[in-house]
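Limitations
The structure tokens in this dataset are predictions for the assembled complex, not deposited experimental models. Users should treat interface geometry with appropriate caution, especially where small molecules or nucleic acid strands are included. An illustrative entry is reproduced here so readers can see what is and is not provided.
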Amino acid sequence: MKKRQISDDSLNRIIKYLVITLLGLAIIFIAIQFSDFWTWILNAIKAVIVPVGLSYLVALVVFPIIKYLEKKGIGPRGFSLGIVFVLTAALIFATFKYLGPKITEQITTFFNRDFQTITVYFQTDLRDDFIFGTQIYDQVSSYIADTDIINTTLNQVIPNLISYFTSSLIPMIMTIMLLPILLIFYLLDYEMISERIRSIIPSKHERDYTELGARLNNTIGAYLRGQLSLVVILGFVATIVYRLIGLKYYLIFGVLVGVTNVIPYFGMIIAALPPTIYAMIAGTGPGPVLVLAVNGIMQFFEGNFFQPYIMGKNLSLHPIVVIMSILFFGSLFGAVGIILASPITASIREFFIFIRQRRKRKEIKHDVEVDSS
Amino acid sequence: MIKKDRQRIYSQFDINVILFFLSMIFFIPIVLVFTYIFEVDQLLNINTFMFWLLITNFILMLIGFFSLMIRKEKLIRQVKPTYRVEFFYVILLFSFGILGFIVLYDYMGGNRKYIANILVVVFVASVYALIYLGKKYFKFYYMKKK
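Predicted assembly:
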């Protein structure tokens, strides 16, 4: 039987890939040897990337409002920017001034009055109410007591959390102080900055990169604007509904619904648990079934009316894809990964759609050239 | 020959009229909803507050009505295949407006025990109304969406 010969081209390609792989591994190996140096460099990059990235994300939300104002004849850029900044500052100030004391009051009342009741319930009454019977409850509680799991976890988690917050406090304050300044300069010269970035790209790829950049900007911008609207609307609706049904800490639970809504699918479940458990234990106010029903209705409205209209087509991902992306990016980047899982996945999808369309365009162009020749 | 079952296409003027009257109907409830969170009922006399709201509503209605009439000719010539943004505005009006009517019921001394029951019934009615409005006027076929 005749042995199949490998062509010179294939052999060259194999050698090329092998050399690239080996070089890559060698670079990684050398980089590992100087890990301290790389950590130093990475920290410096992180110090720049975090405020710049945040200002880019905020600009995606704010810039359409400035554009709208300019379209209505409110200009120049500095004036429209000033209006948006003053209004945003007034809104943040009003929220803290009027809602802040109320939320603090509710939290204080909760810890002064109801926290004790809840602790007593978990220590004594839960045993009688346990759905699998008192015997299993005793077994579970003795197991928990034997393994000392709660104390061990708390001893591990709390010092870590404290050290994390203390170490990131100064960078966080710096970022908060820098953000408005960066935003002002970024928004003032938004078009010019985009143009400069575009000018770095080789002219051969300029059109493709511009199109891809615009698409990704649209996707992330649509997500951020939509998510912000959803957080405000749902937080508001939930607060009102909770107050209407007579739930005691309506403001805390309502804000919780708004904030947790940034996590698709899981958010509403996480937000529904505390008021339901509270309604179950407190005994006064609405029952747990009513709280659950109200949450179900809100979930229905959010998923079927608000979400499709606010988010639009760009972010219509299949629920399984969204859940998988939350698990994946959550394990990679933690809380930030969970929040940004959907826009990252939508951007990746947009990227692949762009590649496919580009390839198709090239094929059509090639066919036309062949036909004409 | 023109088909009898052909759907009527509504102009921007028709849609604006619907939006305007819905806004006027839901004006007081929506203001009440926003003030409910800040517990205005404990700061002000709610009857006086509602009286001033009613007067504001009347003035806004007059201004809106005349501005619609002035722009009628221009708006009547504008037609869109679907009124997506306008429909989203209606959804917002319904969401907050319905809650506002329940706040109104609470202010008028209605029994709080029945609020949950009223909420569920009104919710079902509003979903039906939204689907109907979306299909007939805003050309938004909600049920055929997926």
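Some entries come with short summary sentences. For this one: Chain B has one domain: 12-141.
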